[in-house]
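REVIEWER CHECKLIST
Item 1: Sequence provided? yes
Item 2: Single chain? yes
Item 3: Sequence as submitted:
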Amino acid sequence: MPLDYYEDEDEKDSGSKNGRKDFDCPECNANNPLEEALADGQELLCNYCGCEFLVKAQDNGRFKFKEV
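Item 4: Structure as written out by the authors:
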């Protein structure tokens, strides 16, 4: 069964001109700071619950996360 993408609903701007440097875990809602800005195809690990996600960039500048 294919896994669905979770849409990033966080509308805030991180204030960095290089893009967002954090994400809210779709599973546990914990905020995870990142050293690098979010990018399409990036793999992320939630530092709190341990879930792993694949990032998918959308045309509108938002991101979706797929659990891997």
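Item 5: Key structural point noted by reviewer: Confidence is low (pLDDT under 50) at residues 11-17.
Item 6: Recommendation: ____
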